[in-house]
Amino acid sequence: MKGVALIIQIGAEQHSHAHDETIQTAVAEYSAMLYRIAFHQLRSAADAEDAVQSTFVKWLERKAPFDSEDHQKAWLIRTVISRSRHLLDSAWFRRTVPLDTLPEDTAAPDPGNGVLDEVLRLPPKLRTAVYLYYYEGYKVKEISRILGVGEPTVQSRLRRAREKLKIELEDSL
């Protein structure tokens, strides 16, 4: 994530020292998580890094302070998901085929049983809910707040994802 550090250095020239330290702390604390979220959306290491970088650039451009650390974390997650979706919707992304595979440093569980492969095949909305719930340990209420949807919507997405995963995993056995 060298690119994120470079962007922070460039952005630091425009902000106060305290703001710079806050951003550097957030980069150190949240970069890996944001990368994993973006990777699960995009399935490409380079594109995931781009999404994380653009998330921190957007933060540098943000004028309003965060109410709390939870607000900051939720904003970062929402923004990286939004940046990932923006990349997925771009003409470039629709017309190209990713060449890289899952890198070892994503801290994802061992895909030996095929579960991760099946999770990555889920539609983005279902995949995001599953990732935040099972991989990042968020509760339904927190996911609802992060994604800006109702709790029943999150529960429905998790249920539909479980059903799809069950069918796919039974077929692969």
Strand content: under 5%
Q: Give the class from helix and strand content and strand pairing.
A: mainly alpha
The level of helicity is over 70%
Please report the number of helical segments: 9
Shape: globular
According to DSSP, the number of beta strands is 0
- First-to-last CA distance: 38 Å
Rounded to the nearest angstrom, the radius of gyration is 17 Å
Mean pLDDT: 80
The profile of the biggest β sheet is: none
Unreliable parts: none
Total domains = 2
Q: What is the succession of H and E elements? A: HHHHHHHHH
Question: What's the arrangement of secondary structure elements?
Answer:
Blueprint (H helix, E strand, L loop, with lengths): L1 H11 L4 H26 L2 H17 L7 H21 L1 H4 L20 H7 L2 H12 L4 H8 L3 H22 L1
Q: Outline of this structure?
A:
This protein has helices at 2-12, 17-42, 45-61, 69-89, 91-94, 115-121, 124-135, 140-147, 151-172. The chain is mainly alpha-helical and 173 residues long.
Description:
The chain is mainly alpha-helical. The chain has two domains: 1-102, no CATH class; 109-173, Orthogonal Bundle (Arc Repressor Mutant, subunit A), CATH 1.10.10. The protein is 74% helix and 0% strand. The chain has nine helices and no strands. The chain has helices at residues 2-12, 17-42, 45-61, 69-89, 91-94, 115-121, 124-135, 140-147, 151-172. The model has no long low-confidence stretch (mean pLDDT 80).
Name its key features.
mainly alpha, Arc Repressor Mutant, subunit A, 2 domains, 9 helices, 0% strand
